[in-house]
Amino acid sequence: xxxxxxxxxxxxxxxxxxxxxxxxxxxxxxxxxxxxxxxxxxxxxxxxxxxxxxxxxxxxxxxxxxxxxxxxxxxxxxxxxxxxxxxxxxxxxxxxxxxxxxxxxxxxxxxxxxxxxxxxxxxxxxxxxxxxxxxxxxxxxxxxxxxxxxxxxxxxxxxxxxxxxxxxxxxxxxxxxxxxxxxxxxx
Amino acid sequence: xxxxxxxxxxxxxxxxxxxxxxxxxxxxxxxxxxxxxxxxxxxxxxxxxxxxxxxxxxxxxxxxxxxxxxxxxxxxxxxxxxxxxxxxxxxxxxxxxxxxxxxxxxxxxxxxxxxxxxxxxxxxxxxxxxxxxxxxxxxxxxxxxxxxxxxxxxx
Lengths: 187, 155
Fold this sequence. Notes:
The complex is a heterodimer. By secondary structure, chain A is of the alpha/beta class. Helix content of chain A is 38%, strand content 14%. Chain A contains 5 helices and 6 strands; from the N terminus they run ααββββαβααβ. In chain A, strands 4-3-2-5-6 form a 5-stranded mixed beta sheet, with helices on one face. The longest helix of chain A is centred in the last third of the chain and has 24 residues, at 123-146. Helices cover 32% and strands 23% of the residues of chain B. In chain B, the strands form 2 sheets. In chain B, strands 1, 4, 5, 6, 7 and 8 form a 6-stranded mixed beta sheet that branches. The longest helix of chain B has 15 residues, at 20-34. The radius of gyration of chain B is 25 Å and the shape is elongated. The termini of chain B are far apart. Chains A and B meet through helix 2, strand 1 and helix 4 of A and helix 2, strand 3, strand 7, helix 5 and strand 8 of B.
């Protein structure tokens, strides 16, 4: 009799009242340590390393859109000074060549963007320029995409099926050649 | 009239807190899943520039980070004030990049190794010289997928 009484006492339920406190403590720990830093950026594909540099001057001049950024963060687009603001429109005009001008790209598949900078160029400016070039292509890709049936309102982004993206990019390929920078103005 | 007073007197049940632990546990699991332990202390100051054409980096395990920037105030005595490269948790040179990449690579399953992306977190004020050196080192090491980390701009 006495034994039975003891047993029933031992098998009492565990007090769950403090469970919330423990959970709270852990929760606060994870709240503090958590860093939801979304990793975003401009994805690029670097060209494979080779000892011989591709010389864009050997190509047909009308197909090359040269952008130079110097150590003072000034822009030279096809031989003339320009602003970052106009770069996007000029790039688009160059690639598509809507008026079939003699000095712009023959067709989008032949267009090459040549980007060159000094070692003293600030990274911020470089990213701005790169962003504008990429934006020009993204806008053209979206325009192209909208001519495909079923995608008339779509925006070109990585959520699209890969086959569709390939098709669009085959018609307007993003070819960007980066020359070795000149050694001006390094800190 | 008496009907109403009767009801009033009855309506005072305490809110049950029995489901509170469940709710807290749910939150806890959410944060446990989302959380990424910061693996390395930042030794250099990095404020990445702004841009609009962004792509998200999906898998954290397939990304390795290279920081470039000026050393923080408290490390200036040791490392100077010129921009430096930080790999993992120490200041390095571009010669250390191949080993750094290799160390990350062996942690990744073999069939996913082509998807490894290097995230370059570079301070906006840094000049292109050091960035170019890193890019050259990456090209030589055949690590060609690169992401220039940027903030979305407020445009």
